[in-house]
Amino acid sequence: MAAVSVDSLLERDGPACAWCGRAPWRRDLTLEHLVPRARGGHLVAENVVLACRGCNRRRGARPVDAYVRELLRDGVAVDVDGLRTALRRLLASDRRVHRDAGRRLLERLASVDAPVRP
Ligand SMILES: [Zn+2]
User: Fold this and answer.
1) CA of 62 relative to ligand 1 center, distance in Å
2) Which domains does the chain possess?
3) 9 C-alpha to center of ligand 1: Å?
């Protein structure tokens, strides 16, 4: 399996932060674990997306849906469908902790509507 890096994720996902949609300088993009390491997540391609430093820090180890709801409350136009796409990759992981978390997080995000971008 190819090593996970900011460059490999830039190629897969493009330059935007998975949370707030901003496209910062490359040096300000970080590897963000969908299932945090503190919750058993691993550094493998299906468990990481790119995030800006601000979002990475602010989200901490909270579940995906908790941070999405906070951003939406703050009026940030989160790409919820993009996050669903990322979470679906967890369903195909060979690690059970990822598959289980992916299922749970997709269920919790099911009731979250993506905002209409202006
Ligand atoms: Zn961000």
Assistant:
1) 15
2) 6-109 (1.10.30.50)
3) 15
